Write the C-alpha cells for this entry.
Amino acid sequence: MVVAPIEAGDKIDVRITKLGKKGDGIAYFRGFVIFVPGTQVGEDVKIEVELVRETFARAKKVVE
C-alpha cells in the first residue's frame, strides 16, 4: 500500500507539468500525482487538496 505524502486540506505550491486525458492539469508532489482542473502546463499554482486516493489526489487552485 502506498502512503500519500499529502492529506485533504493541505495547501501546497506546485507546477503543472502536463495535461490529463480529460484536460485537467497534472502536478507531482514527492512523486505523487495530483489532478488540478482549470490549470495549464507550465503554470505555478497554489492548490488545496480536496481528495486523496491510493494512487492520486484531486485539488483545486487557490485564488489569493
User: Anything to note?
Assistant: The chain is about 0% helix and 50% strand. The chain has a mean pLDDT of 95.
